[in-house]
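Now for today's protein:

——
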Amino acid sequence: MSPISKSDLDAISMTIASAMSQGFAQLTAALSQPRAATAQAKTSYRYSGFLPKGAKAAPADLASKDAAIVAAFKRRGFDVHLMDRNDPKVPYDVRPYKGWLEVGRVVHKGQKGVRGLFHLTQTDALPTATPPKGKKTKAKPQLAPVA
C-alpha cells in the first residue's frame, strides 16, 4: 500500500466537508418547510372501523355493523335477535362472553363467536355450587351423662 500524500488527504477531506455541508443545508431546508401532510395524517385514522376517543358513531354506521353481525351469524346457521339500541329491555339472544356470565350462563368450551359475540345456543347454564368430593365425616357419638 502506498502512503497518501498530504495534498490528496486535504482534497478528500474538503470533498467530504462540502458534501456534509450540502447535506445539512438540504436537511435544514426540508425541516423548515411547513408540513401539510401531518395535519392530514392527524385527521385520518389507520383503522377505519374505530372512532376517535369520545366520538359516537352515526346511527347509519351502527345499523350497517348490526347487519354485518346478523349476516355473519346467519352464515353459521344461527337465527339471531340483537339488542335493540332504543329499548335494551327487549329480549335478545346474542351477548359477549362476560355478558353471558352476568346472566348466569357460560359459553361452551371451544365455541367460536362472531366479533366477540356468542348465541344463546352456544351457552349452558352455570353449574350450581356443589360441595367438594372427598371423605364423608361421620358424626361422633355423644356420651350420655351418668346418673
